[in-house]
Design a protein that fits this description.
By secondary structure, the protein is of the alpha/beta class. Helix content is about 40%, strand content about 20%. It has 2 domains: about 1-115, Response regulator (Rossmann fold, 3-Layer(aba) Sandwich), CATH 3.40.50; about 125-220, Winged helix-like DNA-binding domain superfamily/Winged helix DNA-binding domain (Arc Repressor Mutant, subunit A, Orthogonal Bundle). About 30% of the residues are buried.
Length: about 220
């Protein structure tokens, strides 16, 4: 199950993402409302955890714009604003639930389960050409070959295959793969792309990881 965490407090964002991943969720993160709207409209999420007070565009406006586009992605507001008026406003805007900070992580997980309970089941298995990635069992196969990946390599491949055909910038990959205290500025994304290519591309005739000059990387069958 795939969750987007939209929270501008980076330490809290990092904690939530790490705990969700440890609980078996696939997680993306962003830190402002405009990026949250872009992420949701560009991808498929089973649920969104969204702070209300974010820079540029607040959570209310993000949800309002989503619902205007008939996007019914479930949204759970996370906020310190606990007045009845704020809660009613958020629900009237189209949010599915509202959780007041500070909150227990067990309660957050329970709210996510309730919020996503009525969603149709989504596959955890993704394919491109003869490459198969099972996100639930965390197994990777190319044809009949089982490929062993490190946790970071798997996280990168999972992100790319869920977004197959989409050009992913280095910045987007860094935001997804690395903790928020990672400052970038090195070639670490290039290094892990190279590691993946050695394992899933180099032994095979059909290459699946492609560099888009000046834009980033994409997983697709040419």
């Amino acid at each position: 199950m795939r969750i987007l965490v939209a929270e501008d407090e980076r330490d809290l964002n990092n904690v939530i993402c790490n705990k969700l991943r440890a609980s078996g969720y696939s997680v993306d993160a962003c830190f402002n409302g405009a990026d949250a709207l872009e992420y949701i409209l560009a991808s498929r999420y089973d649920g969104v955890l969204m702070d209300i007070m974010m820079p540029g565009m607040d959570g209310y406006e993000v949800v309002q714009r989503l619902r205007e586009k008939n996007d019914l992605t479930p949204v759970l507001f996370l906020t310190a604003r606990d007045s009845t008026e704020d809660i009613v406003k958020g629900l009237d805007m189209g949010a599915n639930d509202y959780l007041i900070k500070p909150f227990s992580f067990d309660e957050l997980l329970a709210r996510i389960r309730v919020m996503t309970r009525s969603l149709p089941a989504h596959t955890s298995v993704y394919t491109v050409a003869d490459l198969t990635v099972d996100c639930a069992s965390r197994t990777v196969k190319r044809g009949n070959d089982i490929i062993d990946l490190s946790p970071k390599e798997f996280a990168l491949l999972e992100y790319m295959i869920i977004n197959k055909g989409v050009v992913l910038s280095r910045e987007a990959i860094e935001d997804h793969i690395y903790d928020v205290d990672y400052e970038g500025g090195s070639n670490v994304v290039n290094v892990y792309i190279r590691f993946l290519r050695r394992k899933i591309d180099e032994p095979y005739d059909t290459k699946l990881i492609h560099t888009v000059r000046g834009a980033g990387y994409v997983l697709r069958e040419e």
